[in-house]
Amino acid sequence: MSNYRNTIERNAERFKALSNPHRLALFQRLTHCCAPGTACAITEASRLSVGELGAGLEIAPSTLSHHLKELNRAGLVQMERRGKQVICWVEPATLGELAGLFTPTTTE
């Protein structure tokens, strides 16, 4: 399979995962590295525990886990177990790839 086709399929999976409102909310929480009105670098993107991510979303823990698993499977969210906690984050390269889809390319 061509690299172009692989890229198209990977991006389709990403957008499919983000089409769920709860997953989009979780992804957005992880991509906002600081409080509104302040500035930060993308390398400072949030690393939150599953509990912190789910706070205020009114999602059952099992449903939250399912949504995070789907985001991880789509390559949007990274997860690492640290003792009893699972920490989640979005790699800056992933955000760069997604942003690149909306950046016009010029042909010379």
Strand and helix layout:
Blueprint lengths: L2 H16 L2 H11 L15 E3 H5 L6 H13 L4 E5 L2 E5 L2 H9 L8
Antiparallel strand pairs: 1-3, 2-3
Quick description:
The chain is an alpha+beta fold.
Structure description:
The protein is an alpha+beta fold. The protein has a single domain, classed as Winged helix-like DNA-binding domain superfamily/Winged helix DNA-binding domain (Arc Repressor Mutant, subunit A, Orthogonal Bundle), CATH 1.10.10. It has helices at residues 3-18, 21-31, 50-54, 61-73, 92-100, and strands at residues 47-49, 78-82, 85-89. A three-stranded antiparallel β-sheet has the order 1-3-2. Strand 2 (78-82) and strand 3 form a beta hairpin. Helix 2 packs across helix 4 (61-73). The longest helix has 16 residues, at 3-18. The protein is elongated. The two termini are 28 Å apart.
